[in-house]
Amino acid sequence: MKTKITSLALVLISGFFLLTSCGSKSNNSTNPTSNGTTPLMAATATIQNFAFSPSVIHVLPGGTVTWTNKDATAHTVTDLGGNFDSGNIAVDATYKMTFPTAGTFTYHCTIHSMMPNATVVVGN
Ligand SMILES: [Cu+2]
Predict the structure, then answer these.
(1) Each residue of 38-58: pLDDT tens digit?
(2) Which residue of 9, 54, 59, 83 is surrounded by the most CB atoms within 10 Å?
């Protein structure tokens, strides 16, 4: 009888740890992502019709912005201050940049000078 209770407790305890470890794992892998209008740890943006959208992207310090090129030609995401440069982003490809410190970064596409500049605002 004593053995039965002990093994039951072991099953319950291991089940609990299995559940909690799964829960923390999924929390870590899914950073809250915004469309760039609210500062979160991750934001997504698109390059489409020769424009960056949204034109102002907000992200928290330490956050990441991922741009996807949805045009039929290559573009770049190039900081005017020289802090980052994607190089050519191919059609349907993405470029990911992490911003460790607060600040305002204005960037453009070096291939198409007629494309409007856009901005990443890093801060709370
Ligand atoms: Cu371009």
Answers:
(1) 889 999 999 999 999 999 999
(2) 59
Distance from residue 108's CA to the centre of ligand 1 (Å): 8
Report the predicted TM-score, pTM, of the whole model to 2 decimal places: 0.75
**15 in helix, strand or coil?**
helix
Q: In angstroms, what is the span from residue 93 Cα to ligand 1's centroid?
A: 13
Q: Which two tokens stand for residue 20?
A: 């909690």
CATH architecture for residues 33-122: Sandwich (2.60)
Which protein residues have their CB within 5 A of the ion that is ligand 1? 75, 109, 111-112
CA of 30 to the centre of ligand 1 (A): 30
Residue extents of the structural domains in the chain: 1-30, 33-122
